[in-house]
Amino acid sequence: MAVTARSHAKINLGLAIGPPRADGFHSLVTVYQTLAAHDRVTVAALPAAQTSIRLSSNDARVPTDERNTAWKMVALALDHLGLAAEVSIHIDKQLPVQGGLGAGSANAVAALLALEAELGIAADPAQRPSWQAERLQLAARVGSDVPLFLVGGTILGLDRGQSVFPLPDQPSLCCLVATPAVGVSTPQAFRDWDALCAAGQESTAPSARLTPLPDDDRLGQLSRIYAGACSQAGFHPEVAARMDSSGVLPQRQSLAGPLVSALVRTGIGNDFERVVFAQHPFLAQIKRILVAQGTPEESLYASLSGSGSSLFGLYPGRKEAEAVAQRLRAVGVESLLTHTLPRQSYWEQVLLPTAG
Ligand code: C5P
Known about the structure:
Layout: E1 3-20, E2 26-47, E3 52-57, H1 69-81, E4 85-92, H2 103-119, H3 131-142, E5 154-158, E6 163-166, E7 174-178, H4 186-202, H5 206-209, H6 216-232, H7 237-244, H8 252-255, H9 258-265, H10 272-279, H11 281-291, E8 301-304, E9 311-315, H12 318-330, E10 335-339, H13 343-349
Parallel strand pairs: 3-4
Antiparallel strand pairs: 1-2, 2-4, 2-5, 5-6, 7-9, 7-10, 8-9
The structure holds cytidine-5'-monophosphate.
C-alpha cells in the first residue's frame, strides 16, 4: 500500500528582510498563505534492516537523489525516530517549477505526512505529544520555507522564515499566480538586497536614501504591526455570509477578507521587489497587469511571491481573475487560477484516500 499527500503551493503576502547574519541567513518577517494548487506526493514504505530511498517524478527537472527536499525530509525523520525502512517516493509535479511558490518545500512536508501515515508514526498525539515540535525542527533543517507547510492557512514567519505562527483562518480568496519564464536565484536576491542596503547607507542620493535600513528594529516593528493587524482581523462569519449572498454587493474591504484588508492597510509589501524588479523589469510589468488599477478587475492585492519569479493577484471572484489571466496571455505569460486555502481545508484535504 502507498499513501498520497497533496503538496500545496504558498505565496508570501508580504516579506521584509533584515540584515545578513553570521550563519549565512537573513532575519525576516513574512506572512505566508497556502494555496489550493498542489503537486501530489506518494510514499510507499516498509520496515527494513537498513534505510534505502528511491525517488521518481513525472517531471525530469525534479532531482531524484539526496538533493531532493522530500528525500532529505524522509531520511531525517527516519534517522530521528531510529527507524529503518525501504522507501519509495513519487512526486507528481503539477505546480510550475518557477520559484516563489515553495513547491519543493511543500513536497518535503507532503512526503513526511505520507510517510507518517504509511508507517503509523506518531498517529496518536498522546503517545508522542512533542511530535509537532520535533517535526517543525526537522523541517527547518530541510529549508526555511518548509515548516510553514506543517501549519497551513495564513502564517506569520519569523527568524529566517522557519519560525512559524498560525494566524486566524480566513475566508478563501480567488488567486491568480503568474508564472513568467524567468529564473531568480534566492541566495543571489538576498545578496542583491544586501548590496542595495549597503549602497543606500553610503549614498546621499535621495533615491538611495529611500532604501529602508535593514535593521532588526524595523523587523520587530513590522512583526508587531502584522500581529496587531491579525488580532484585529479575527475571522468574521458575517463577512463570509456577505461574500456568498448574491443580492448585496459587499464592500471591497469585506471582499478582501479582514486579514488581507488589515495587512494592506499596514502597507505590507515584499522587499525582494526592489532588487528583482530592477533586474527583470518585465516582472514589474506583470505586477502592473495583476494590479489592474482603475479597471473593473482591479486586484485586492498583488505582489511578487518570495524572491519570484512567481507573482500573484488576489481578486473578488473568478471573472476578474480570468480577465487578468487573458491580459497576461496577451504578453506571453502563463498563469494559474487557484484560491487561497484556509488552514481547516488544508488539513481536511492533505491526505488523499488510499486507492488500495
Ligand atoms: O533555507 P533555504 O535552504 O531555503 O535557504 C536557501 C538560501 O537562501 C540560504 O542558503 C541563504 O543563502 C538564503 N536565505 C537567507 N535568509 C533566509 C532564508 C534563505 O539568506 N531567511
